[in-house]
Every structure is written in C-alpha cells, then in structure tokens.
Amino acid sequence: MKIGIIGGGSIATFLLQSINVERTLPNSTVKSVLLRRPEVAEEWESRYGIDGYQDLNAFLDSGIDIVVEAATVQAVHEYAEKVIAKRKDLVIISVGALVDQTLYQNLREACRQNGTRITLPSGAIGGLDVIHSAYASGQLESVSLTTRKPPLSLIGREVETEEVVFEGTATEAISKFPKNINVAIVLSLAGLGSDKTTVKIVADPQATKNTHCIEATGAFGRMSIQLENDPMPSNPKTSYLAALSVLSSLKKKTEYISIG
Amino acid sequence: MKIGIIGGGSIATFLLQSINVERTLPNSTVKSVLLRRPEVAEEWESRYGIDGYQDLNAFLDSGIDIVVEAATVQAVHEYAEKVIAKRKDLVIISVGALVDQTLYQNLREACRQNGTRITLPSGAIGGLDVIHSAYASGQLESVSLTTRKPPLSLIGREVETEEVVFEGTATEAISKFPKNINVAIVLSLAGLGSDKTTVKIVADPQATKNTHCIEATGAFGRMSIQLENDPMPSNPKTSYLAALSVLSSLKKKTEYISIG
C-alpha cells in the first residue's frame, strides 16, 4: 500500500518513523507528503525517502493508494472532497471538521459516487466496537463520556478538589472545548449522535494523565471502559493511543483476516 | 449488498429477522441460505424471501457478494476455503476453527491470492479497537480477560463464594472450555496471541449475567473494560452483543464513513 500524508506535524512524523523507518506495516510505505514548508519537505525527502509536494494535484497523482489527513480541520474542508474525487481512500484525523453536517453529507455522497471509503481512527478512546454493535440495530440506549484531566492543562490553574468544568451534550462540549474534544466527536459519530451523547469534563487534582471513561447501556447489557492515556513520547500534548489508532486504521486496510 | 448465510440456527434467524424483516442494513438483503434441513429452507423461503440451498456451489453461485458462516467450527473447516476461492468475502462466527494454525494460515493465503477479506465479529466483548491500536506498532504489553458466570450455567452446581474455575493462558482455556471461550480466541487474535493472553474464569454466586473484564497495558497507558452481557431475546445461551456484533461487521461493509 502506498500512502500519502497531508500534514507536517507530530502525527505525520510519527507515521513516517513507524512505517518508513520501523516498517510496522507489512508491504506498505509512505510515498508522498503534502506540506506547506519546502524546507521540511527537503529534510523529509532525505530522512524518510518520501517525495514532498506543495501542490495537491501533483501529490494526488504521485501513485498513492490512500491519503491520511494529519493536518487541521481547515485542511479537511479544503482537500477532502478533492481526495475522494480522485478515488483515493481517506483517513481523517481532524475529525472536528465532521461536526459540519453539510461537509459530512457531501463527503459521504462523494464516497458513494467514487466507490471510496473514509475512515476515522478511534483516537484516544475505545470500546467503539461495542457502541457500533449496539447501535447497528437500534439497541443502544445511552452513551456518556467522562474526561478527567490535570487542572493546570485543562483550566490553567490548580484546584484543591475536583471541579466539574463542563456537563452537557457532546454538541455543547464540542462548541465550548474545541481543542479538547475530538473524543466526543468520534464517540458521537460511533453511536447516538452529538445531541444524545452526554459529556462531563472534570479538572481532577488527583489526575496525572488524561483519562476517559465511557459508559453505554442498551438491550445488549452494559459497557464501561476506562482509559488512562500516556502521552506520545515525541509530543506530550497528544495521547499516544490517538497516534497508534491512525496506524491501526492503516493496518486494517492491509489485513486479510481482521476483527470488527 | 447481497448476503449469503451458512447455518440454520439462532444467529441465522436473528440476521434474517434484522436484515430482511426489520431492514436494519441499508441497501442490503439476505438472498441465500445454505442449510442442512430442506423443511427449514422451505419455511424460510416463504417467511424471509430467501433461497435455500443444500449444495455449496449452487449457494455460492446464487449472486451473493458476501458469506456469513453462522454454523459450526466444522463448517468453517469444510467451507471457508471454498468460499474464498469463489472470491466472496467471509464473516466467520465460529472463530474456534481459527485455533488451527494451519487453517488460519491457509485462509490468510487464500484471501491474499483472491483479493478477499475475512472478518471476525468482536463477539460478546469489546475494546478490541484499543488492543488492535496498541498492538499495531508493538506497543502492547499485557492483556488479561476475567469472565464471570453464574455457577449453575458454568459448572452445573451452586457455590457459596466465588470459585476460580480456571486461570492460565488463553491457549489452555480454549482447550479446556471449548464451548465457553470464543471471547478468548477473538481477544488473542486481536492482540498478543493465545500464549500471552491470560484468562481467568470465575463461578460467581453474585453474577446474574455473564460478565467479561479485559485489562490491557502498554506504552499507550492502560485500558480496563467491563461488559455485562444480556442474553439474546430468542436464545438465552447466546449474548445479545455477540449477535449484534455480526450485524455490526456487515454494516461496516456498507458504510462510506466508518470508525476504526
């Protein structure tokens, strides 16, 4: 599988290191990267053996099978439909873009017309397999997410006892905490949608890491999942699991026998 | 998507009811069923609008896109390679068959040669998305499963306090509890393999339902998931989530935008 990446940040670097240096994906390589800065392109060309592009069409015509967007919400708005129109599968990391219902529906329709697929990595959370299963036949009743973070990183000050910073629907959480809330978006898309998924964000003086707890109920029974996320070694602001989940999405495309 | 089912039991019935009667999968229908008993075939033909077959080749040539094995381990041994050779994607429910490493490797190779995919539904458990992500780049350290069941259903007698019926590797659990342990097989395949996945089975007088707890650790951090499984309305011996996960696997094949 020949992969193209849009973006020049820490996720792009992680993918290049994993795939092109450590060879974690069988028979796969990152061939092309679309990024703004020519000096980074030049450095990556020699370090990772990729071709760097500043022009989208040249990037899309460079012999790649699949594109990973690892840039920004703006990049999704700007490039996603064009990627699909060129019949490339697409992995979208900046899932915040899909809050825009018009974009979501346009991308879905473009995939249908071009016979392509968009994959959203599960990010810093999990148990989405259970939620997808429960939802598949209308058997999902409730989904709630509780995110706990160290106070300083969340609200910029210390607190003595835990402080509920937000409690409400995922829709509200997404608009009030746009930087923190990719998990709420993916969770909403996996199940009941953002109006029916509830979110609680807690500044917790006991928390040394970001933790997410998801509870779901339905005719299947009950699920509860707790995740304690360690940061990426190369970028303390990103959960390592979120980066690994991108690799997981790509790996699934290459598996002949897979689970889910 | 035109679906063919191998099997005439409760999962087959559930899929027919969900897909052909309740129309839970967009633009999809079960077209053909391979089953042993002609009288069931006849009844299902009129009830669900399917075509019943006793002959595998006639079934495979009936215009179906994908096959769901919902029968037995023996049926996987007998039919799976032939399904793949006809270039049909395959969903395998009787995952116990894949304990046979030779069969597993043969199926994988057959998929590679024919450009097809085998999917294993996540069954009565979840969080396999996290395990797959952690494993994708060698970042998974430990995976353990604790299954609790009501004593009577597990060991045929009541106990006063909880009794650990088994503790060891998934490999041992699979050979000692073949009927109970599909979850251990799927969990092993998702991550560290059956020699490195640990399993504990507990007869719990407090348990009114089957519950599964999975813990995983690695460079990503830590995951803990608890599942309380309600039974299928139509078959108290099967977890409803296991049935729903089959529908989920099929639904993913029809989604243009999906998570995972």
TrEMBL record, chains A, B:
Positions in coiled-coil regions: none
Active site per database record: 212
Reactions the enzyme catalyzes: L-aspartate + NADP(+) + H2O = oxaloacetate + NH4(+) + NADPH + H(+); L-aspartate + NAD(+) + H2O = oxaloacetate + NH4(+) + NADH + H(+)
Regions crossing the membrane: none
Residues binding NAD(+): 124, 182
Aspartate dehydrogenase domain location: 160-247
InterPro entries the UniProt entry points to: Asp/hSer_DH_NAD-bd, Asp_DH, Asp_DH_arc, Asp_DH_prok, L-Asp_DH, NAD(P)-bd_dom_sf
Domain Aspartate/homoserine dehydrogenase NAD-binding, first and last residues per copy: 7-121
Pathway: Cofactor biosynthesis; NAD(+) biosynthesis; iminoaspartate from L-aspartate (dehydrogenase route): step 1/1
Enzymatic class: oxidoreductase
Keywords: NAD, NADP, Oxidoreductase, Pyridine nucleotide biosynthesis
GO molecular function: aspartate dehydrogenase [NAD(P)+] activity; NAD binding; NADP binding; oxidoreductase activity, acting on the CH-NH2 group of donors, NAD or NADP as acceptor
UniProt-listed GO biological process terms: NAD+ biosynthetic process
Enzyme nomenclature, EC number: 1.4.1.21
Recorded family membership: Belongs to the L-aspartate dehydrogenase family.
Miscellaneous comment as given in the Swiss-Prot or TrEMBL entry: The iminoaspartate product is unstable in aqueous solution and can decompose to oxaloacetate and ammonia.
Function: Specifically catalyzes the NAD or NADP-dependent dehydrogenation of L-aspartate to iminoaspartate.
Protein name: L-aspartate dehydrogenase
Originating organism: Brevibacillus panacihumi W25
Gene that produces this protein: nadX
